[in-house]
Design goal:
The protein is mainly alpha-helical. It has a single domain, classed as Multidrug-efflux Transporter Regulator, Chain: A, Domain 2 (Orthogonal Bundle). About 55% of the residues lie in helices and about 5% in strands. It is built from four helices and three strands, in the order βααββαα. Strands 1-3-2 form a three-stranded antiparallel beta sheet. A hairpin with a 5-residue loop joins β2 and β3. The chain starts with 9 loop residues before the first strand and ends in a 29-residue tail after the last helix.
Length: about 140
């Protein structure tokens, strides 16, 4: 059985120091459902790089934009839904491309229905032709 690659994980004290927040603030973000750190066997919170990216967004929203925690929750949920929708769109476009290429290969044009370039037998005139005037 192949070994799973170890993911970096940071303890709450290291994260609090790195981002200049109190550990209680990180615990509050967890209680509010904004962060979901994993736990070690000893029940120690372990923050992954994904958790840190999410924390950076939370801190930017609260510190720089003045968004309250309820607003942060809404924004984070909307970001997750948008990411999921983007993935669905990309999968849909990929399946359309596959289906289009299958159909393109299976369709043979009927003789006489293909477009062909034809040279213009007369040189173009400069401007519209006018009908002859009656006298």
């Amino acid at each position: 059985m192949p070994k799973q690659r170890a993911r970096a994980a940071y303890m709450i004290s290291a994260v609090a120091e790195k981002y200049g927040v109190h550990p209680q603030t990180l615990r509050m973000y967890e209680r509010e459902g904004l962060l979901k750190p994993s736990r070690s066997e000893g029940n120690t919170r372990l923050y992954t790089d994904e958790d840190l990216n999410r924390l950076e967004v939370i801190l930017e929203l609260t510190r720089e934009l003045g968004v309250n925690l309820a607003g942060v929750e809404i924004i984070l949920n909307m970001r997750e839904k948008m990411a999921a929708m983007q993935t669905q769109i990309e999968q849909f476009v990929a399946s359309l491309n596959v289906e289009f290429s299958r159909n393109l290969r299976s369709v043979e044009p009927e003789p006489g229905t293909m477009l062909m370039r034809v040279a213009n037998p007369e040189p173009a005139t400069s401007g519209p032709s006018r009908p002859a005037r009656r006298k």
